Amino acid sequence: MQDQLPVISREQLAVIMFGTVFVFIGLAACAFAAVRRREEVRLFAWLGVWSAMYGTRLLAESPAVVGVLPQWIQFRVPFVWTVVVYLALPVATPAPEAE
């Protein structure tokens, strides 16, 4: 039984924990922005999208997380990681307001 358990290092465990926290914070911020639906909460929507994307990138880096995903998702993980890396900068820098 001991031989079947995957070995997760402390670094992988930290990445998994931080990724999960970032995804949760991102979803909570997006939910808050959706409930309020005002112009002032646009910052929460952007923060939520960026945080969820960053958490997804962290989780996609972890071999332990990728290893437990179904096979049909595992081969899409590099594509998701690349998309998140390229979209993280535009999401983190929203367009200026039009006057």
Radius of gyration: 16 Å
| Elements, N to C (H/E) | HHHHH
Proportion of residues in β-strands: under 5%
What's the tally of helices? 5
The helix content is over 70%
The N- and C-terminal alpha carbons lie at a distance of 65 Å
Q: What would the average pLDDT be, to the nearest integer? A: 81
Described by strand count, sense and barrel closure, the largest sheet is: none
Count of spatially separate domains: 1
Backbone shape:
elongated
Q: Low-confidence parts, pLDDT < 50 over ≥5 residues?
A: none
- Report the strand count: 0
- Helix/strand class: mainly alpha
Give descriptors for this structure.
99 residues, 5 helices, 74% helix, 0% strand
Description:
The termini are far apart. The protein has one domain (2-92). The protein has 99 residues and is mainly α. It has five helices and no strands. Helix 1 runs antiparallel to helix 2 (42-61) and helix 2 (42-61) runs antiparallel to helix 5.
Can I get a quick summary?
With 99 residues, this protein is mainly alpha-helical.
